[in-house]
Structure formats: structure tokens, C-alpha cells
Design brief:
Number of helices: 10
Number of strands: 0
Distance between the termini: 73 Å
Structural class: mainly alpha
Shape: elongated
Length: 192
Amino acid sequence: MTKSEKKVIMALCIAIFLVAAMLVFSLVKDRGSSSGNDDQAMDTVKEEMQEKSSSEDASEENTEEFSSEDSMDTSQADVSSASDTSSSTTDTAAKPGEVMNADDGYMFPDADSSYVKESEVKKLTTEQIQYAINEVYARHGLKFTKKENKERFEKKKWYTGTVDEQDDIILNKYEKKNVDIMAGELKKRGVR
């Protein structure tokens, strides 16, 4: 191979690398803008940085406190007697309620790949928050024991119950944080 051929090959390699880098940058930028505005993307980055700096022990302790599927369930009497900080007449409260009883859809569609905002969780009813926590586990195929949850998730097109024990499910960092945020809101309301 001559010296000029080596230079051409090297130039092509550099060009390919630059094109690949621009594609990756473009995909990352598009992902941030498709999930909302730039502020939301910045919020996600800030939350990721905060999560890294927060104590692992505190996260594990909160997760263990709310790890039992049955402890996340409530009866209708519990829901009606629990204090609720959201208004059921707002559009944000009605839409999650529709998702809960529909045969498809998610309360938080991106709960496995982005963080939910505390302000969004605060707008939900207590029942909706408990449903959203159970939904995280349902995505992993948890088989529910309570009749209400079993019936609710079995009619979802995306649900397939394959896991008997909640402890057998491994949540990713987004799911863990989202469950912690939702469980924290339930604790503030005095439900847990």
C-alpha cells in the first residue's frame, strides 16, 4: 500500500467518524426535543445528576418500604377516606383515570426511560398514584393477587403476567426513582 493510499484511507476513516459523531449528536438532540421541550431535557439531566449524588441507602430504604405489591393496593374505602390534594375536575386528573380503566395505555408512558415530575404526581388522586406504582411492576409482568388489580391489568393489551414475586423484578434507575417519587407523595398524604 502506497503512502497516498494510506492518506486516502485515513481521510475516509476521519470522515466516517465525523459523520457518525454528528448522527449520534443529532439523535441525542432529537430525543430530548421529542420528549418535550429543552427545559424538560434539562430537567432530566439535572435529575440524573442529583440521583448520582444522592445516597443509595436512602433510595433502597424507601424502595423496601413500598416493595410489597399488596401494600401498594387500597380498597375503595381507603381511597375515598384518604385526603386528596388534586382536583378531580382538572384535565390532568381525568386523563389518568381514563387510562386506569382503559384496555390500553400507560399512566406515565415513559416511566421506564425518564423521570416523572413531582408536580405531575401531586396532581393525581391517591388511587391513581397507587395504580401508577403497580403499573411499573405490571410492565415487568408481575402477577397481581388482589382482584381489582388483577382484573384491571389483565384487560391491558400490553400486559402479560409472568412473574409471581415482586422481589424477582429488577427496576432500572428511572423506575426506581419514579416509584420513590410516587411513594413519597403517598407518604405525604398519610396513606403509607
